[in-house]
Amino acid sequence: MSLEKKISMAVIKRLPRYYRYLSDLLRLGITRISSKELSSRMGITASQIRQDLNCFGGFGQQGYGYNVEYLYNEIGNILGVNETFKVIIIGAGNMGQALANYSNFEKRGFKLTGIFDVNPELIGKRIRDIEIMSLDSMDRFIMENRVDIAILCVPYEHTPAIADRVACLGVKGLWNFSPMDLKLPYDVIIENVHLSDSLMVLGYRLNEMLKIEK
Amino acid sequence: MSLEKKISMAVIKRLPRYYRYLSDLLRLGITRISSKELSSRMGITASQIRQDLNCFGGFGQQGYGYNVEYLYNEIGNILGVNETFKVIIIGAGNMGQALANYSNFEKRGFKLTGIFDVNPELIGKRIRDIEIMSLDSMDRFIMENRVDIAILCVPYEHTPAIADRVACLGVKGLWNFSPMDLKLPYDVIIENVHLSDSLMVLGYRLNEMLKIEK
DNA sequence: TAGATTGTTAATCGATTAACAATC
DNA sequence: TAGATTGTTAATCGATTAACAATC
């Protein structure tokens, strides 16, 4: 398994995008698509699409193109949407609650099993059938329930300590919403979501455009 | 202005990251830093740091390095944190409210001036001094208040129409939280935030790691 | 001055695009 | 079969890294 050629991050990041476009095609009732047609829809080259897909296998057929449903399912498998991950949310503030309510994640195999906070006013409250629990009970919960992923929505200053704590308890994936590049010495997969970075890039690009217009 | 060499998206996306690290250094009371030292902190090469910074000017000094406060301010200027943008949030569901409460954005010059929704139960409610208004009153509000940026937190199916509507009214930047690649025929800057894409990449990487471990 | 470190050019690496033989 | 379109190799392009003269 580990002998296979390494797939670049650039390709991996495009997979969910392919998955979305194929889902749209499926909804539109389109059963087959060529890399050329998909290319014009997605605004990337047909070459890139064929290269990307061929990292994982030959899903198409010469002279025909790709069967939409088949390709959709194959990319779904590659992304592991059929695997189930047990997820907890740490920090039930605005962002934590917003994510807890975002039921779409369940469709992709991310099963929310617990929410934790320190605020006594929040503890006991329910979000979509899940009770917000005290942070004190988290360690035990993680061990007993074999949690795969922790979504970190705690304040900036507490993030590194909490990350370390859950990683030591065996959590294998972290989805971090604090504006810091979380890194851990352990074998843990971390995805950093930097909303303020994204907004600042928007601001930069906006300024550039306005400058040029002047 | 438009004659200057084009700066690549790769560089632009790193700017907020530099800004964060410099902010940390400042907080730690560190007054000067070499590209080498910054490189080891950030986990990128010193070469890249010097190349990136030199896209915008020579901020350092041979034999000395960079003055942290000066560089922080310069990058802040490049990112336009001193410019003020008028922002509205469209859709006051979970994500909209979470973003409305995230007061950190104000620090970077993004001033929330309005929140809009269609839900009568939400209209009239206040979030941080801003009243949630009816979507019906949005067009007028945008024109009267010269809104720069709209944050789109509306359901998937309504996103393209709302985006088009605000773009026609002169909104120049869109921060889109719907899981679609929003594109518009107008001269509008769009930043797509694809939370579910990010989560699926985490899932993929997690699966890969678990496969190799077996 | 000597040492350190930048700014910048040149070399390398990796990712994207083009081309085309294979084949449905 | 003829036309279409893939899978894949080769060419190009752009981004990263290395090297080093300039200079504080």
TrEMBL record, chains A, B:
Keywords per UniProt: Cytoplasm, DNA-binding, NAD, Repressor, Transcription, Transcription regulation
GO cellular component terms listed in the entry, alphabetical order: cytoplasm
UniProt cross-references to SUPFAM superfamilies, sorted A to Z: NAD(P)-binding Rossmann-fold domains, Winged helix' DNA-binding domain
Pfam families attached to this UniProt entry: CoA_binding, Put_DNA-bind_N
InterPro entries, A to Z: CoA-bd, NAD(P)-bd_dom_sf, Rex_DNA-bd_C_dom, Tscrpt_rep_Rex, WH-like_DNA-bd_sf, WH_DNA-bd_sf
Major localisation: cytoplasm
Places the protein is found: Cytoplasm
Binding site for NAD(+): 91-96
Gene Ontology MF: a single term: DNA-binding transcription factor activity
Start and end residues of each CoA-binding domain: 80-181
PANTHER family hit by this protein: REDOX-SENSING TRANSCRIPTIONAL REPRESSOR REX, REDOX-SENSING TRANSCRIPTIONAL REPRESSOR REX 1
Similarity comment: family membership: Belongs to the transcriptional regulatory Rex family.
Subunit structure: Homodimer.
Function noted in UniProt: Modulates transcription in response to changes in cellular NADH/NAD(+) redox state.
NCBIfam families the record matches: PRK05472.1-3, PRK05472.1-4, PRK05472.2-3, PRK05472.2-4, PRK05472.2-5
Name this polypeptide is given: Redox-sensing transcriptional repressor Rex
Protein source organism: Acetivibrio mesophilus
Organism lineage string: Bacteria, Bacillati, Bacillota, Clostridia, Eubacteriales
Underlying gene: rex
